[in-house]
Amino acid sequence: MNNTYYGKLIFELSQPGQVGYSLPKSSYPQYSLDQLPSALRRHSETLLPEVDELTAVRHYTNMSNNNFGVDTGFYPLGSCTMKYNPKINDEMAAHADFATLHPTQDTRGTQGALRLYDEVQRSLSEISGLHRFTLNPYAGAQGEMTGLMIIRTYHLRRGDAHRTKIIVPNSSHGTNPASAAVCGLEIVEVKSTPNGTVDVNDLIPLLGDDLAGVMMTNPNTLGIFETQIPEIAKLVHEAGGLMYYDGANLNPMLGVCRPGDMGFDVMHINLHKTFSTPHGGGGPGAGPVGVREDLAELLPNPQVIKKEDGTYDLYHNPDSIGYISGFLGNYAVLMRAYAYLLTMGGDQLSKVGPLSVLNANYIKERLKDAYELPIEGLCKHEFVYDGLKDKSTEVTTLDVAKRLLDYGYHAPTIYFPLLFHQSLMIEPTETESKSTLDAFIEVMHKIADEAKSHPEVVKTAPHNTPIRRLDDVKAVREPKLTFKDL
Fold first, then answer.
1. CA–CA separation, 315 and 479 (whole Å)
2. Which residue in 8, 17, 96, 472 is deepest, having the highest Cβ count within 10 Å?
């Protein structure tokens, strides 16, 4: 990709006097731009690039080719389930009968849309084992916040205003303590055992009459199944708290077990992870929240209900926690999830979890000769190495991640979770073929060999990308947020 346009900002291509458009003369001269009142005109410099049309087309086309996604290559981004999104999902979401609806239309003209919403709710309830869902939250993090608001409101209405403590494992996702803090709750950390699971002995002393709930992910952030959840749930419920399930890692559980059956009372689901809707770029996302039966009245408004005559309506429950989003969430995302659910069906959906587990364990076992595996044994959907086995070359996890870019792979999650100094988390998902996994394994072995034979090549990577390695410290301390100094 060696041409004038590759890797340059469009402002660098700008040349005074170049124009990429030609507007016809207006048939209504009284409405021409120069007739606009002075107060409506922009008097400062517009700072727009001056380029011809072909330059603009080539620039943005080349920029788009720099984007990396599941459609362009293997995306082993642990903790995020970057799975392939079938194109039929997009086709269904673009259907004119849905895409042209307006949120304020009367419910008599949106019965099909409300039915879709209701059926997604019911499907998620069946999959999770929880009584009822809301699909209103715009993202997983907002789903967490909504679930914690429900927990907080539950205790307040019982007269337990002193229950403000939320316990999270030291391997939890960063959004867990952040969401709890937003809801005015106190965050308390519980330690993990050497095998990566919650230390029940460390948990017990933390349980008291100030407990609001415990947030857990299963499988946890290390990709390990938490086998003591029934015991933990019993202890938490006896202490008067609620169990919150972070649904970020639900993918390997599909068709195998359900959070509601384990003793969880509230959960959110990342539709953009488990149910193959768009992911990344800041959205749009969806974070449905499910609850046990006695918490259903607290779900946010509006609530979609099915009436006795078979029609659907919007219900504004006075006992609800209120409104957490406009209308009914990111509806086009919900449509994609619905298409995925119908395409898969129960039989195929039950294969998702086992196949994602198989792929993860295949990579883990094939690479543990070159990368340090701190916790042996069966993982679920993802696993974590603690950097290279051979630390003598001082090649870090960051170096490995940067070198992967030279071979055309997106780097996996690095330096998370914080339990290991050189964490490198890999999640292949169920949608990748064995040949893709084998090619990735070969490259990872090649990088491990390079770290021994030519460590500087790895330490100075990437070499084949438009932007080379940045000074991370300088980028934080002296960020340049515009294309030029203003």
1. 47
2. 8
pLDDT band at 39 (very low <50, low <70, confident <90, very high): confident
The CA distance from 311 to 265, in Å, is 29
| CA contacts within 13 A on the Cβ side of 382 | 31
Residue 428: name the closest of 350, 343, 361 by CA: 361
Answer yes or no: are the C-beta atoms of 375 and 222 closer than 8 Å: yes
Do 316 and 182 fall into the same domain? yes
Q: Is the pLDDT of residue 35 over 80?
A: no
d(CA 251, CA 225): 13
Name, in order, each residue with C-beta under 8 angstroms of 197's C-beta and a sequence gap of 6 or more. 220, 224, 226, 227, 228
- Average pLDDT of every residue of the chain: 92
Whether residue 198 is found in the same domain as residue 292:
yes
Provide the pLDDT for residue 7.
Answer: 55
Q: CATH no. for residue 469?
A: 3.90.1150.10
Instruction: Decide if 180 contacts 188 (C-beta within 8 A).
Output: no
> Minimal CA–CA distance to 148: which of 189, 173, 176, 129?
176
Residues 272 and 299 in one domain: yes
Indicate if 138 and 30 belong to the same structural domain. Answer: no
How large is the greatest C-alpha to C-alpha distance in the chain, in angstroms?
81
For residue 485, is it within any domain? no
**Cα angle, residue 411 at apex, residues 405 and 412 outer, rounded to 5°:** 165
Structure tokens at 378: 């069966």
Q: Report whether 163 contacts 294 (CB < 8 A).
A: no
Position 8 pLDDT exceeds 70: no
Average of pLDDT values for 109-116? 95
How many residues are listed for the chain in this entry?
A: 486
Helix (H) or strand (E) holding 113, with range, is helix 111-128
For the segment 159-174, the average pLDDT, to the nearest whole number, is 94
Q: Measure the CA–CA gap between 455 and 458, rounded to whole angstroms.
A: 5
Q: What is the DSSP letter of 51?
A: -
Q: CA geometry: angle at 90 spanning 71 and 119, to 5°?
A: 125
pTM summary value: 0.90
Contact 444, 367 (CB under 8 A): yes
